[in-house]
Amino acid sequence: MSEKKTEDHVLDELLNSMPQFTDKRSKDEIYQKVKSEIETQEKLEKRNRVGAAVNKWLPFIISVASVLILTVLVSSYISDNSNSTADKAIESSMAEDRMTSTEETEEASMKVVEEEKSNDMTIFSSPENATFELVPFDSSFTSVYDSDINGGTVFHFSMIENALSVPITIVIPKEQIDLDFPDGAPNSLELYERYAFKIDETALGFQEYHPYKGYFLAEGNMLKHYLPADHGYDTAPGTAAPYISSINETFTDFDSLARVNEDGSPIEWDQVGTLTEPLALQGIENNANYFAYKAFNEETYLTPNFNKTFDTLEAALLDMKNPENDIYTSVIPNGMNFTVRDDKGFIVHFDEPLNLESLGASEASRLIEGFSLTAASFNQSIKLENVVQEKWQGIDLTKSLPIPIGPNGFNMMK
């Protein structure tokens, strides 16, 4: 027997000894599976984008996706149409080769990402693909207070819907902070860099808005936002307003924001001109009052009225009676009147005795928290006077209301 025939005989025996491969899935099932995986991968990659640098990784992503799709489709076609065991073995070998090629491509792309990172720039990175689940507070009061933290860390964040910014307050468990920040307590920028891309905003019923385009640098108490040419935050009031509001609600420990081009030069802001001075950030002490906002997800949140500000707390409290628009709703029932006075602390006195039980439980809690959040935005506490109940949902109404840390509380669960 010639050497070639011997090799063919050995190969035939090897192929005949290999297990049979069958795939009973329909072509439609395979297509839907591939489509679902691609959509999931695209969403994760969008959340993990690194500003302008994301375009550099796109070829790698497309290559990996293309190889995976080709592998699955070829596998299905061969298993459905080929009766040759040898063909199946060859197909299996081809799949293994492609898998090796895919792994090598992924490793190469990760290496390029690491090499591109700069030590003096803030770039959003993803150590893990897993997202965090945000669970809303399951209590009558939805704001975050000192008693809710339990040693954890507060992360102020902002959801966007219909050009509106809705502030939320996320409590991150101490164990997670210790794991992610072993060197000490993080500031708001470090929290944002670490967790923003892991928050599934669409799952909560909001627009997928974060992370911001570009990157940030902290210079003392000033935050610098280096923006790409196509950032789009200045195209209209409907894009500029939520951008500014969300920045203010998220980076609460910075007192100013400088917007610049990617090269650090002064940026041209549409309808405004060249920006030469930083924008003042008020953080949580923004001298605003609070109203109820019912989002598209049918949940009600407490939020400032388009971030309108006031010179005095008294003016802000009295203005809470009427939002003057159809977007927000007053937490104060129609016909309820009160006065405000400063007597070694601000006091809201209701003209008629207020019976909280005459309101729904949620409405009564929103009334109380609307007052306390408004006072907190002026770094003040407040007391309600002429209320029938002395206690409500654990709050002693004979004393000043507890000062909330932030509105719309969520617990972060991994």
Features:
alpha+beta, 3 domains, four-stranded mixed beta sheet, 9 helices
Which outline best applies?
globular
Order of helices and strands: HHHHEEEHHEEHEEEEEEHEEHEEEE
Instruction: Give the count of helical stretches.
Output: 9
Uncertain runs are 50-58, 77-99, 108-127
State the share of residues found in helices, binned by percent: 25-40%
How far apart are the termini?
65 Å
Tell how many strands the DSSP assignment holds.
17
How many separate structural domains?
3
Arrangement of strands in the largest sheet: 1-17-3-2
- Gyration radius from CA atoms, angstroms: 29 Å
Instruction: Decide which structural class fits the backbone.
Output: alpha+beta
Whole-number average pLDDT? Answer: 80
Q: How is the main sheet built?
A: 4 strands, mixed
Q: Can you give a write-up of this model?
A:
The chain is α+β, with helices and mostly antiparallel strands. The protein folds into 3 domains: 3-116, no CATH class; 156-167 and 176-280, no CATH class; 288-413, no CATH class. Helix content is 36%, strand content 22%. It has 9 helices and 17 strands. The strands form 6 sheets. Strands 1-17-3-2 form a 4-stranded mixed sheet. A hairpin with a 5-residue loop joins strand 10 and strand 11. Helix 2 packs antiparallel against helix 3 (54-81) and helix 3 (54-81) runs antiparallel to helix 4 (85-116). It is globular, with a radius of gyration of 29 Å. Mean pLDDT is 80; it is low at 50-58, 77-99 and 108-127.
